[in-house]
């Protein structure tokens, strides 16, 4: 787990730009970490942040020795509170924090939460594992990927089920994912994490019950994220499956690009449309006035990521998954075309998510990518 720091990384950056994971590294997907601790959710954002981090520490302690959080997505009801909560992250992680993405959501899964964390952990274990320990809600709190697997993502949309109720839409999303996995040589047993993008968090209890009924003891970790709107017009939900197929079963098929864990997986921070790797102090970036157009902002966001890729010895051809957090889904065609001009190809395996807000009010796009250096 080697941290990647591009040249001219500013002092005081609140996250590590990327980690390059060695081929033997074992990845564990943790369930959504809420601020509820000992049955209590404290009212202040600092206390909620601390509770999330203590819950994270408990989750990491239950894994193999040396497990470390390498990627954290912060889901916050008000991103302005990041300036209040950040000191808890600084105290917990020290100088080498995880790669980070920050988005504002209209609701958290816990009704009193103002912050929740989605976390990926990594360790260098003595033996491979593939454990699923079910919690009280029938879903696992952590699932570990098999070593020497093919690792990738597949999207599921509601398609023709739009308007027939959220559970029907969810099952259509999951059917699409299952069909695509079969084409690669995988099965639903190979899904290690399922992210649900929900237009209304009140749908989450019904979705949770449907997933437990469908998958039983082989359920993946499930992370519900409330969003303003999903990409398909009129739909209530979209799904993103993260899967790990043992290399011996992989077919030469069909689902987006795939990454074999035999290479060095690059786990990267999301990049907002602010120039970051320009030296100086990290807080200076937040005084920058974002470019007015979504296309220009896209180029700045990708420029940040390109510096990280180059520092790791990788390039755009090594990118196999992209997620785009946008303030307005209608701007996606402009963002996609701007990305095409930078990447030299359409964004690979894109998920496009409309969120309430990014790190600053005028920031309209944040790109989050995954790459593997062979």
Question: How would you describe the overall organization of this protein?
Answer:
The protein is an alpha+beta fold and 374 residues long. Among the domains are: 117 residues, 2-Layer Sandwich (60s Ribosomal Protein L30, Chain: A), CATH 3.30.1330; 103 residues, 60s Ribosomal Protein L30, Chain: A. Helix content is 24%, strand content 29%. Helix 1 runs parallel beside helix 2. It starts with a strand and ends with a strand. About 1% of the residues have low confidence. This is YjgF-like protein. It comes from Zopfia rhizophila CBS 207.26. InterPro entries: RutC-like_sf (IPR035959), YjgF/YER057c/UK114 (IPR006175).
* CATH class type of the domain at 145-261: Alpha Beta
The main sheet comes to: 7 strands, mixed
CATH topology of the domain at 145-261: 60s Ribosomal Protein L30, Chain: A
Order of helices and strands: EEEHEHEEEEEHEHEEEEEHEHEE
Residue share in β-strands:
25-35%
Count of separate DSSP helical elements: 6
Q: Strand tally, please?
A: 18
> How big is the Rg?
19 Å
Q: Which of globular, elongated, flat, extended, rod-shaped describes the shape?
A: globular
Low-confidence stretches: 253-257
Alpha-beta content class: alpha+beta
Assembly state here? single chain
Global mean pLDDT: 88
CATH architecture heading of the domain at 145-261: 2-Layer Sandwich
- Estimate the helix proportion, in percent: 10-25%
Q: Give the distance, in angstroms, between the N- and C-terminal Cα atoms.
A: 16 Å
Q: Give the name of the CATH superfamily of the domain at 145-261.
A: RutC-like
Protein name: YjgF-like protein
Pfam family, one: Ribonuc_L-PSP
């Amino acid at each position: 787990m080697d941290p990647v720091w591009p040249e001219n990384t500013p002092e005081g950056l609140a996250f590590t730009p990327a980690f390059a994971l060695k081929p033997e590294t074992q990845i564990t997907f943790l369930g959504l970490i809420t601020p509820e601790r000992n049955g209590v959710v404290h009212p202040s954002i600092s206390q909620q942040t601390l509770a999330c981090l203590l819950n994270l520490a408990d989750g990491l302690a239950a894994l193999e020795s040396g497990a470390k959080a390498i990627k954290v997505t912060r889901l916050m009801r008000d991103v302005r509170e990041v300036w209040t909560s950040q000191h808890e992250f600084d105290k917990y992680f020290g100088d080498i924090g995880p790669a980070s993405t920050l988005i504002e959501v209209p609701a958290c899964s816990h009704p009193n939460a103002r912050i929740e964390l989605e976390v990926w952990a990594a360790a260098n274990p003595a033996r491979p594992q593939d454990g699923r320990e079910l919690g009280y809600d029938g879903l696992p709190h952590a699932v570990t990927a098999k070593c020497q697997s093919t690792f990738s993502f597949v999207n599921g949309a509601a398609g023709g089920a739009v308007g027939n109720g959220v559970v029907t839409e969810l099952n259509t999303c999951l059917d699409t994912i299952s069909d695509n996995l079969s084409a690669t040589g995988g099965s639903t047993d190979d899904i290690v994490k399922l992210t649900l993008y929900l237009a209304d968090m009140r749908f989450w209890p019904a979705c949770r019950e449907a997933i437990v009924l469908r998958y039983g003891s082989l359920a993946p970790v499930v992370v519900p994220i409330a969003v303003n709107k999903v990409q398909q017009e009129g739909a209530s939900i979209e799904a993103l499956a993260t899967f790990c197929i043992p290399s011996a079963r992989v077919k030469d098929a069909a689902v987006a690009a795939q990454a074999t864990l035999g290479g060095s997986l690059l786990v990267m921070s999301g990049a907002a449309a602010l120039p970051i790797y320009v030296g100086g102090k990290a807080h200076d970036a937040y005084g920058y006035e974002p470019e007015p157009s979504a296309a220009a902002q896209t180029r700045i966001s990708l420029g940040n990521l390109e510096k990280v890729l180059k520092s790791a010895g990788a390039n755009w051809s090594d990118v196999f998954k992209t997620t785009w957090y946008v303030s307005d889904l209608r701007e996606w065609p402009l963002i996609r075309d701007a990305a095409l001009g930078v990447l030299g190809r359409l964004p690979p395996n894109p998920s496009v998510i409309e969120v309430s807000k990014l790190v600053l009010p005028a920031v309209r796009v944040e790109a989050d990518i995954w790459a593997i250096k062979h």
